[in-house]
Amino acid sequence: MSSDDREFPVAPPMPLKGRGAVTNLQGRYEKDERERIDDGWLHATDSEDDAPPLRTQVFEERAKSILTRNSSPDIPFSVSLNPYRGCEHGCIYCFARPTHSYLGLSPGLDFESRIYAKINAGELLERELAKPSYQPEPIALGVNTDAYQPVERDLRLTRRVIEILYERGHPFAAITKSSLIERDIDLLAPMAERGQVMAAVTITTLDADIARTLEPRAATPSRRLRTIRTLSEAGIQVGVSIAPVIPFVTEQDMERVLEACAEAGATSASYIVLRLPWEVAPLFKDWLAAHFPDRADRVMSRVRDMRGGKDYDSNFATRMKGEGLWADMLKQRFQKATKRLGLNARQRGILDMSGFSRPEREQAKAPASPQMRLF
């Protein structure tokens, strides 16, 4: 077998502490080709603790638009809003990683260490809502990159977006892996009373050691369970998203995750099977070789069983749940567990659009608040 035919690197790159990707894989639009070589200075005794820390850089961006629309039949929303590009949580499986290629950056370490903050997100949202042609429908917040990633603690762009949605009575649904969402309960709780908000917390596994390498800068699994409880006790409808389900890594934890979330107060649940579009596939394989070399071949073999023999199949009918025997078994396990636990027992309520009030055009054109001008 030639070196070009090998699926996994012979000498896996050393993991970086606190990072998901183990390489800065070249983006598919870069013109110059880079090749990683061993110059003899790396040794088997080297550990991830010896590697220099990779500092996160945050860049201000004045976006031209803020609402993204889609018509995908397998996605339960058609409008989304993402205050940030890139995500410091560093989840190795993140389907949004390839978007950094459009910036001439790597979907690998660049994606989780070079974050772009849309500092005019609130201003653009108010302008959009004020258009006479705007037709309100629920907005999905933070589905591409987490709206509550660490930088939000200081920049508060997500907070400003929610303030506008709160003031205008505009429904939205948020999904996150961060406990920072608890900060905004003062806005979320009254919106929940009016039927204008839903929340979902993503939990892939209850194993903290696996989570530490899989999604290194997200909240720990136990902390996310506490967030579900806190949101639920505040009267906010909250669900759990098991995404992704990774065979032989997190898949065996599905029932335990559902049980823990139901006990914490979640009322609904969903799951997505591991997706590996574009550069996510080689990044994930490098991660497997670095962290799970003993089962890397088995994992990818099972992934292909669900993807028609390929690493990934973008078919709308199967891309979220997969196909074949293993995908069917996974579906049955999920359905039996949710039925036993009373999850998804009642259909999630439709968010109430009747309270929406359009901002005045003059107000929408007003300059940002003094706080926002700091950024």
TrEMBL record:
Keywords: Iron, Iron-sulfur, Metal-binding. Residues 73-310 form the Radical SAM core domain. Residues 1-51, 354-375 are annotated as: Disordered. InterPro entries: Elp3/MiaA/NifB-like_rSAM (IPR006638), MJ0683-like (IPR040086), rSAM (IPR007197), rSAM_sf (IPR058240). It holds the Pfam family Radical_SAM. GO terms for molecular function: catalytic activity; iron-sulfur cluster binding; metal ion binding. It comes from the Bacteria. Residues 28-41 have a biased composition (Basic and acidic residues). PANTHER family: SLR0285 PROTEIN (PTHR43432:SF3). This is Radical SAM domain-containing protein. It comes from Caballeronia humi. The lineage of its organism: Bacteria, Pseudomonadati, Pseudomonadota, Betaproteobacteria, Burkholderiales.
